[in-house]
Amino acid sequence: MFTILAILAALVLYVVFIYNGLVKSRQMAEEAWSGIDVQLKRRADLIPNLIETVKGYAGHEKSTLEEVVALRNKAQAVPAGDVEGRAVAEGLLGQALGRVIALAEAYPDLKANQNFLELQRSLETIEGEIQMSRRYYNGAARDLNVKVESFPSNLVAGQFGFAKKPYFEIANEADRAVPTVKF
Fold first, then answer.
1. What's 52's domain CATH number?
2. Does residue 80 form part of some domain?
3. What's the total number of domains in the chain?
4. Tens-digit pLDDT profile for residues 81-108
5. Of 5, 77, 146, 180, which is most buried by a Cβ count within 10 Å?
6. Distance set, CA 75 to CA 88, 112, 150, 179 (Å)
7. pTM given for the model
């Protein structure tokens, strides 16, 4: 009888250990997604200033500027938990931002404007931080996904409703490139 109780206690402790590991992994993935969201918000907040600066020099590039604003609004409208939708929207926004930065080549006065240069440096820094946050999130999602799919933790995960997290990936290869700036 004591042996059976000891085995049951060990089994319960093992399930608790696995459950707590799954909770920790899920929380790490959610915290990592929050990091991406913060960086994307910083980029979105920078865009209006960048657009206004460019407008002063390249007012007739209105369609490009309007496209960036529209894509920014679309990216911000994606629901918080929709990782795939956010990746697509942010990829399109990144492409459009690259086109705005490329406008500086056609406007030497814009390229020399101190405000534009500061905004450009800030955007480059934020893009790098987004990339680091994306890697961190994908690592946390990977760790959770391994636990959700591997035996025996998959038994506990299925029982308690733990699900895989999607990776924050950009489908279009051209979207993966950080906008390059040349002087």
1. 1.20.1440.20
2. yes
3. 1
4. 888 899 899 989 988 888 888 877 777 7
5. 146
6. 8, 30, 34, 18
7. 0.76
